[in-house]
Amino acid sequence: SNSYFRFVGRLLAKAVHDVQLVDLPWAHLLYKHILGQKVGLDELAEMDEVFVKSLTWMLDNDITDIIHETFSVEEHHDGEEHTVELKPGGEHIDVTEDNKQEYVDLVIEYKTHRSMAGPLQALKQG
User: What is the residue-level pLDDT of the chain in tens, covering all 126 positions?
Assistant: First the structure.
């Protein structure tokens, strides 16, 4: 729950205030969020290396007639599937060779920011 993340945020703030070392095995993704830095494929790879390999392959190769994606992702909550658009109208916009970089950027933003917005905000508030 978000109260857990708020508590951890307060604990970290107290440690920083008291100049205490806290050795936590956190992903670079969390550090970058706390510092307000941009998150990229390297940080996403810490969460899902196979997915990042797929995105990298997409960027490195011509995807014409191979990849059939739209600017949307599927989420699963409480046994139900929901479509989330990566940009307005994304469910109806095909990923092409010309717009694949935008798609990858939006997927990274979604996976590392939007899908974790509540807990990350609670951590920062703490």
Answer: 677 777 877 877 778 778 887 776 666 777 777 777 888 888 888 888 999 999 999 999 999 999 999 999 998 877 888 899 999 999 999 999 999 999 999 999 888 877 666 666 666 666
Query: What are 57's strand-pairing partners?
Result: none
Rounded to an integer, what distance in angstroms lies between the CA atom of residue 103 and that of residue 71?
A: 6
Q: How far is CA 22 from the centre of its chain?
A: 24
Burial (CB < 10 A; 0-12, 13-18, 19+), residue 102, is middle
CB 34 within 8 A of CB 123: yes
What span, in angstroms and rounded, lies between the C-alpha atoms of 20 and 31? Answer: 17
E strand or H helix at 55: helix 49-60
SS3 for 61-116 is CCCCCCCCCECEEEEEECCEEEEEECCCCHHHCECCCCCHHHHHHHHHHHHHCHHH
